[in-house]
Structures are given as structure tokens and as C-alpha cells.
Amino acid sequence: MYHLTALITCLAVALYFYTSILVARARATYGIKAPAIIGNPDFERVFRVQMNTLEWMPIFLPALWLFAIYIADPIAAAIGLVWIVGRILYMSGYSQAADKRSRGFAIQAFAAIALWIGAIGAILWRLVQG
Amino acid sequence: MYHLTALITCLAVALYFYTSILVARARATYGIKAPAIIGNPDFERVFRVQMNTLEWMPIFLPALWLFAIYIADPIAAAIGLVWIVGRILYMSGYSQAADKRSRGFAIQAFAAIALWIGAIGAILWRLVQG
Amino acid sequence: MYHLTALITCLAVALYFYTSILVARARATYGIKAPAIIGNPDFERVFRVQMNTLEWMPIFLPALWLFAIYIADPIAAAIGLVWIVGRILYMSGYSQAADKRSRGFAIQAFAAIALWIGAIGAILWRLVQG
After folding, report:
1. Which string of DSSP letters, residue by residue, matches chain B?
2. Chain C residues whose beta carbon lies within 8 Å of the beta carbon of residue A58
3. Cβ-based neighbour number of residue C86 at 10 Å
4. pLDDT for B34
5. Mean pLDDT for the stretch of residues B24-50
6. Is C35 close to A44, i.e. CB distance below 8 A?
7. Taking Cα atoms as reference points, which of B17, B11, B120, B12 lies closest to residue B71?
8. Chain C window 29-58: which residues touch A at a Cβ cutoff of 8 Å?
9. Structural contact between residues B83 and A20, judged by C-beta atoms closer than 8 angstroms
10. Cβ neighbours for A25, distance < 8 A, ≥ 6 positions apart
């Protein structure tokens, strides 16, 4: 069973959902009415946090689950937690200024790439072993 | 087996795919050539319907499947159907005017959040039970 | 087991990740600083390649896996490989000019739709059979 990976998935989805709420709030704060998505740099940074988190979901979630299935549930969940922490740092940094997003971005990229490398390595190993 | 949840997944993917077709059509109707994504509010609303549906897919699909696995396939599928209906109302409302998108949006948000709460509740229950 | 489908998933994620790297490079090349996403047609085409690949991930991945589970792992993986090839042609074509994106786009759309039709057909067959 993959209870810990399932839990991390729920938490990652919740964090991503929270970035959408921040966009809705920023629309009100900065007076950017839907469907507009540009017009104020402060709004655009909050919008880019959501978009970038969305952009990473199809990298993170498949890599997380393939790692959990082909290697181990608790290790996948632990690396997934690092991804979430990196995402939180990225979100709080980018909301302040565009150049404060780098550290959190690097942490979450490192975690996602580690999951991907582990997954593809284990898959190839199984395929070679027949 | 999760036949009903699998069916709802296919239908949700088809609905999302349909929102992309509407964008392609709106490009022709309003003369917005790719790669441009702004320039006409009617086009932008159709584009935002697709984007918003895309934005909700990584919330809906993981929550739907974790709910199905940790609770029950037919209940997950039934709530998933509510999500699809809400999405259709959102799409038809937003295509007409930005302020007609609220009811459908609320329905699909309610359905997705119900799936998420059910899933995380059941996952935590299993973890606590060991 | 679904080793081949898992491998294709990792390759599709890697290709999508590569489209993000191209956006980061194009930001530097064309001087488009984050969070801006418009201002130069050459940048916008590279950005649209990433966005369009993102847009197709929630169509491709669920259809790929439901096809693998309900029909067969190697057939799903083979059609998935066609999708990846179409995506590469789309990426290289669109990066040159907006009207060179059509052939690759058609190939990947054909592959994704084939996966979706196979999946929903097999799901309905199982449901009807009880």
C-alpha cells in the first residue's frame, strides 16, 4: 500500500489549490478582473506562482507515484515532502520579488528530478531483468 | 475494480479536450492567430475556460482516484459526475459573460473539495489504524 | 505489470520538462524577464510549445494508463511513443514558425485520441459485461 505517497499527493494538491486562492485574492487586491491576466507586476507574480506550480504537477505526480511503486512508499513520500517545502519557499519568495524565487525553485526541482531519476532507473532495471 | 471512476476520467478528459476545441474555433472566429492569447475579451473568456479546466485537472483527477481507492468506486464516480456537470455549466456561463461563471464554478469546486476531503480523511484513518 | 507504459510516462515527462528548459533559455535569449510572458513573437512560440504540451498532459497520461490497464501494456506504450514523436516534431516545427506546427500536432492528437477511444471502449465493454 502507498498510504504515505497518497497523503503527500493530497498535500501537494492542497498547496497547488492554495496558489489558486492567492490568485483570486490578488485579482481583488490589484483590481485585475477576469479574464485579464496581465496589467500589474504584483498580480503577475502571484499568477506565475500558480502557473508554475501547475506546470510542475505533471512532472511531480507521475515521478512521485512511479518512484513509490518501483522503489518504496516512505522514500517517495519523504522526497515528495521536500518538493512541497521547496514549493512553499518558492511561493513566499516569488510573491515578494521575482528574484527571490530561486532557492525554493531549486529545492523543488532537485526533489522532482530525484524522483524521476529513481523511477526511470528502477523501471529500466526491471525491464532489463525481464 | 474501478470501472465507473475510469469512465468518469474518460468523460472529464473529453470535456477538457472539448474546451481546447472551443479555443481553436474562437481563434478563427475572433481572428486571434497563434501564439497570441490576448486581444479580444470574447476570445479571452473562451481561453480562460480551457485554462481554468486545465488548472483543475490536477486537483480533480488525483482526488477522484484516491477517493475511489480509499472509499468506493461508485461514490467517487457519482461525485465526479457532479464535477463534470458543474464544469459544463461553468463553460456555458463563462462563454456568455465573465459574471455568469460563478454557479458552475461553485458546483465543480464543491465536488472536487468533497473528493479531496474524503480521500485525505480515509488516508489518515488508514495511517492511524496502522 | 506496466513497465513499458511506466517507461513511456517517464520519457513523456522528460520531453515536457525539456520544453520548460527551452522557455527559460528563450527568456534569456529574447530578454523577456519573468513574470512577463509576452512581448516577442519568437519567445511566445517557445512559450506556447511548453503550454500546449502541458495542456495535453492531462489528456495523454490518463488515456495512456487506462489503455494500458484495460487493453495491454505494450500497445499503450507503442501508441505513447507515437505521441512523443509527434510532440518532438511539433516542438521543432513551432519553434521555427507558427504554421510549421501542424504535422507534429496532428500526429500527437491522433495518438492521444486513439488511446482515449481504446480506453473508453474497453471500459464500456467491461461495464456492459458486468
Report:
1. --HHHHHHHHHHHHHHHHHHHHHHHHHHHHT--TT---S-HHHHHHHHHHHHHHHHHHHHHHHHHHHHHHT-HHHHHHHHHHHHHHHHHHHHHHHH-GGG-HHHHHHHHHHHHHHHHHHHHHHHHHHHH-
2. 13, 16, 54, 57-58, 61
3. 21
4. 75
5. 88
6. yes
7. B120
8. 33-38, 50, 54, 57-58
9. no
10. none
Q: ipTM, 2 decimals?
A: 0.94
Rounded Cα distance between A25 and A7, Å, is 27
Q: Kindly report the nearest CA distance between residue C84 and chain B, in angstroms.
A: 18
Asked if B59 is an interface residue toward chain A (Cβ–Cβ < 8 A), one would say yes
Alpha carbon distance, N-terminus to C-terminus of chain A: 24
Average pLDDT rounded to a whole number, residues B33-37: 78
Greater pLDDT, C51 or A33: C51
The label of the residue with cell 512581448 reads: C39
Q: What is the pLDDT of residue C16?
A: 97
Collect all residues of chain C within an 8 Å Cβ-Cβ radius of residue B9: 62, 66
Residue appearing with cell numbers 520548460:
C20
C31 class by beta-carbon count within 10 Å (0-12 exposed, 13-18 middle, 19+ buried): exposed
Helix/strand/coil (H, E, C) string of A44-83? HHHHHHHHHHHHHHHHHHHHHHHHHHHCCHHHHHHHHHHH
SS3 C20: helix
Closest among A72, A16, A70, A49 to B63, alpha carbons compared: A16
Q: What does the alpha-carbon distance between residue A125 and residue C30 come to, in Å, rounded to a whole number? A: 41
Q: pTM for this one?
A: 0.95
Residue B35 vs residues B32, B49, C39, C44, C107: alpha-carbon distances, Å: 8, 17, 11, 6, 20
Which one, of C86, C93, C73, lies nearest residue C113 by Cα? C86
**What does the alpha-carbon distance between residue B20 and residue B23 come to, in Å, rounded to a whole number?**
5
Kindly indicate the confidence band of residue B36, based on its pLDDT and cuts at 50, 70 and 90.
Answer: confident
